[in-house]
Specification:
alpha+beta; 265 residues; two-stranded antiparallel ribbon; Alpha-Beta Plaits; 6 helices
């Protein structure tokens, strides 16, 4: 099932799921068809269809000794959980570098607005029943809430996979930074990377509250790496130089993701 990106900002039933709290305190596609990841407060006003109005995302950081077992559980229970909390889209990501701890995964949901993202029952009967099926021991080490600053049109389909480079950024000029990301996106389109997507979120919670997260998404790791190979070329280096004047990198990580739930449009 595919869910058009534009339908996300029309939805009002979404909410987020801080998964089961056992040990919680310890823990080449067309560009119009994909949207990233990882992981929100100020919403910029741009042309209709270019940003999710009031859209939100929530991400749970999970640590487990058996990541593959946990991912299989998410794939099996993702639909039931997503439907029960009114999510628009849900997925899971396995980091390849930059992770905070061993056995780390990110279980995320996207929502059409913050009211529904914050308002769902966290442990409804369906969620509790699905959690009983989880065999892998795990720790929910953190939960982050985001708002979307910039997104590009696209769609999600269950089973779709992609690779991300996520960068946590500090800046005193969020609007200026988003403008530079848009420049990079347009330049990427013109230089053979129309399958690369760019998204910017702002953190609402945790020690990163107020910071931004830029997400560069590719159909796979090879295409993501090819994009990184181009960053020293003049077309990209010029924009990166301008970005460096208004932002500081605080953390970066790479990951491979899969969509496990997409609501009917």
């Amino acid at each position: 099932m595919t869910i058009p990106l534009r339908s996300l900002w029309r939805r009002s039933r979404e909410s987020w799921l801080p998964l089961n709290k056992h040990k919680e305190n310890n823990v080449h596609h067309d560009k119009t068809m994909r949207i990233a990841s990882v992981a929100l407060g100020l919403i910029l006003s741009v042309a209709a269809g270019q940003v999710w109005s009031r859209a939100a995302m929530n991400v749970l950081t999970i640590n487990t000794k058996d990541p593959m077992s946990y991912m299989q559980w998410v794939k099996g229970s993702g639909t039931a959980i997503g439907e029960s909390i009114g999510a628009a889209v849900g997925g899971v990501c396995l980091p390849s570098a930059g992770y905070y701890g061993p056995g780390e995964l990110y279980y995320w949901h996207l929502f059409g607005d913050h009211a529904t993202a914050m308002g769902a029952e966290q442990y409804n009967p369906t969620v509790v029943a699905e959690l009983k099926k989880l065999k892998a021991e795990r720790v929910v080490s953190r939960g982050d809430a985001y708002s979307v600053l910039m997104a590009e049109p696209g769609a999600y389909q269950v089973g779709e996979t992609f690779a991300n480079w996520n960068i946590v950024v500090s800046t005193r000029d969020p609007a200026g930074y988003v403008s530079e990301v848009k420049r990079m996106s347009a330049a990427a389109d013109e230089n053979g990377f129309s399958d690369i997507r760019f998204t910017v979120y702002t953190y609402l919670t945790g020690e990163n509250a107020g910071k931004l997260m830029a997400v560069i998404q590719a159909p796979n790791g090879n295409r993501l790496g090819a994009m990184l190979d181009e960053l020293e070329e003049e077309w990209a280096a010029t924009i990166l130089g301008d970005m460096a004047k208004i932002r500081r990198y605080d953390h970066g990580f790479t990951m491979n993701c899969e969509v496990v739930y997409a609501a009917e449009s």
